[in-house]
Design goal:
Layout (H helix, E strand, L loop, with lengths): L1 H13 L4 E2 L2 E2 L11 E5 L1 H9 L5 H10 L1 E6 L6
Antiparallel strand pairs: 1-2, 3-4
Helix pairs in contact: 2-3
Length: 78
């Protein structure tokens, strides 16, 4: 059972979303591109919750990969 838990944990860690087709994910203090729409990555938020006991892993997810671009902002004519 412990081997299965370790394997599942490693699969979760390897599946973190760090990039989409629109660009790289950014953290809380990251520079967001004003031309893109960002959304909180559900996968990375869930992984942060699941790995809360490791302390460092959730901090890294939130600091580096919590907001992922999902599309381009529509052009507005002013």
């Amino acid at each position: 059972m412990k081997k299965l838990t370790v394997i599942l944990f490693l699969l979760f860690l390897s599946s973190c979303a760090s990039q989409t087709q629109y660009g790289k994910c950014v953290g809380l203090d990251g520079d967001k591109d004003p031309k893109l729409i960002y959304k909180v990555s559900t996968r990375n938020a869930l992984l942060s919750i699941l790995t809360i006991e490791t302390i460092i892993t959730p901090i890294l997810y939130i600091k580096d990969y919590i907001f992922c671009p999902i599309g381009l902002k529509p052009e507005t004519k002013e």
